[in-house]
Design a protein that fits this description.
Elements: H1 5-8, E1 12-16, E2 24-30, E3 46-50, E4 65-66, E5 80-81, E6 93-96, E7 99-102, E8 106-118, E9 124-133, E10 136-139, E11 144-147, E12 155-165, E13 170-177, E14 181-194
Antiparallel strand pairs: 1-2, 3-14, 4-10, 5-13, 6-7, 7-13, 8-12, 8-14, 9-10, 9-11, 9-13
Length: 199
């Protein structure tokens, strides 16, 4: 038996089959699909030259860092922004340049999954998110990291977290590596969704 009330409100179209009132078949579509607040980015062979960091922990930059700080400055601890991003599918989030700009205050879930390669053996690669507000970057202290497979072979990285954001805040993805060399982003998918919104 199916409790129809649990699924009718989600906009799922129902079709009764048979004679019993609770025998229903759920069609494979939504009659009133909810809007999804998310950005998806896909990158292919997007290469980044990464410098060595002080240690394999790839510690994130700390404190408020002016957005005028040039890439390569010691304050950024060799993290570089992921380039050439594109975005689709958001009604309260827009993509601009490197960034995802949110249009509503709230808590957001940030998910990231990527396939990376590095041309130097025994290299740890990691990514983290920053929030831009009032002309400063603030970095998440948590860096998602993994040791890359040797021989420039692809390795997966995935992570998620919560971000407290205000309207106008911009979120940016950064990567770093523990060794000098060239890091290639084979594929990358990012989702930024306001907490409480239905998928």
């Amino acid at each position: 038996m199916v409790d129809v009330s649990l699924i009718e409100g989600a906009g799922i179209e129902l079709e009764q089959v048979g004679g019993a009132g609770n025998d229903v078949k759920v069609k494979n579509r939504l009659s009133n699909p909810p809007k999804i607040n998310m950005q998806i980015t896909q990158l292919y062979s997007n290469s980044h030259t990464l410098n060595a960091t002080a240690n394999d922990n790839l510690e994130a930059p700390v404190g408020s860092i002016p957005t005028s700080t040039p890439i390569g400055n010691a304050l950024l601890k060799d993290f570089v922004p992921v380039e050439n991003i594109t975005g689709t599918g958001a009604d309260k989030i827009i993509q601009s340049g490197y960034d995802f700009e949110v249009l509503e205050d709230g808590q957001y879930v940030a998910d990231g999954f990527g396939v990376f390669k590095h041309d130097t053996n025994n290299t740890v690669v990691g990514f983290t998110f920053s929030r831009e507000r009032a002309g400063d970057w603030f970095f998440s202290p948590r860096v998602v990291r993994n040791t890359m497979a040797n021989g420039n072979k692809p390795t997966e990285l995935a992570g998620s977290g919560l971000l407290d954001l205000l309207s106008g805040d911009k979120v940016r993805l950064w990567i770093a590596g523990s060794n000098n060399g060239d890091c290639t982003v084979d594929t990358l998918s990012i989702r930024l969704r306001k907490l409480g919104e239905r998928l």
